[in-house]
From TrEMBL:
SUPFAM superfamilies: B-box zinc-binding domain, RING/U-box. GO terms for molecular function: zinc ion binding. Residues 145-185 form the B box-type domain. PANTHER family: B-BOX DOMAIN CONTAINING, E3 UBIQUITIN_ISG15 LIGASE TRIM25-RELATED. InterPro entries: E3_ubiq-ligase_TRIM/RNF, Znf_B-box, Znf_RING, Znf_RING/FYVE/PHD, Znf_RING_CS. Residues 11-54 form the RING-type domain. CDD domains: Bbox2_TRIM16-like (cd19769). It comes from Gouania willdenowi. It holds the Pfam family zf-B_box. Gene3D superfamilies: 4.10.830.40, Classic Zinc Finger, Zinc/RING finger domain, C3HC4 (zinc finger). Keywords: Metal-binding, Zinc, Zinc-finger. This is Tripartite motif-containing protein 16-like.
């Protein structure tokens, strides 16, 4: 799944991040104020349409706030504010600090399994310049580097045994895991990341489908109640 961009949560009417987002029956989302003003201009036509796909609705849809979408937009705004602050900030609760920096803590850019240490971009440079350090295994910043070291052989676990479902070192592969289905740790990490992204994509799609179903249900209920009220009014007039 591609990284979600801010543009994905922008209103196609005002081209700004969604404010109090609402979803219309066709599935597109807008700022409540933007779509309301757009439909106000269509009153004389006795038909309402979606500004994006132009699907029409004979009755003006009831607008309900999309809570999930609103939360996502708020999270994106917070991320944008942090990015605008400049440079990688360090949050002791979640981020990994560079083990070399002195004084102000700087967020680590990579962790080295061989050094069992984490480095910011500046202090990582020797790993890109030294022939010996270039052979080290760099991974995304982790607070649990020791978990990547084989407790039996004190070696970096660069392999994964799919037979026993565990990370192992080269010496392990030559001993108790000999003949098992082995892949590189990097390949296993890539596969797990792919599965995770697919799972996230499925969850996100399910959320969108449920929200769309909810919008249709509310629209149908509103239209049904309106039709019953009209029928009752006509019956009263005839009486």
């Amino acid at each position: 799944m591609a990284q979600i961009q801010t543009e994905s949560f922008s209103c196609s009417v005002c081209l700004e991040p969604l404010k109090e987002p609402v979803t219309v029956p066709c599935g597109h989302s807008y700022c409540r104020m933007c779509i309301s003003r757009f439909w106000d201009g269509e009153k004389e036509k006795d038909v309402y349409s979606c500004p994006q796909c132009r699907e029409t609705f004979t009755a003006r849809p009831v607008l309900m706030k999309s809570t999930m979408l609103a939360e996502l937009v708020d999270q994106l705004k917070e991320m944008s504010v942090k990015d605008a602050a400049g440079g990688p900030s360090f949050d002791a609760a979640e981020d990994v600090a560079c083990d070399v920096c002195v004084g102000r803590k700087v967020k680590a850019f990579k962790s080295c399994l061989n050094c069992v240490a984490s480095y910011c971009e500046e202090h990582l440079q020797p790993h890109h310049q030294s022939a010996a350090l270039k052979r080290h295994t760099l991974v995304n910043p982790s607070k649990k580097l020791q978990e990547n070291i084989c407790s039996r052989h004190d070696e970096v676990m660069k392999m994964f045994c799919r037979t026993d479902q565990q990370f192992i070192c080269f010496l392990c592969s030559m001993e108790e895991h000999k003949g098992h289905h082995l892949v590189s740790a990097a390949a296993e990490h890539t596969e797990r990341q792919r599965e995770l992204q697919e799972s996230k994509a499925d969850i996100y799609k399910n959320i969108q489908d449920r929200e769309k179903e909810l919008v249709f249900t509310r629209l149908f209920t509103s239209s049904h109640v309106s039709a019953m009220a009209t029928a009752l009014w006509k019956t009263t007039l005839k009486a």
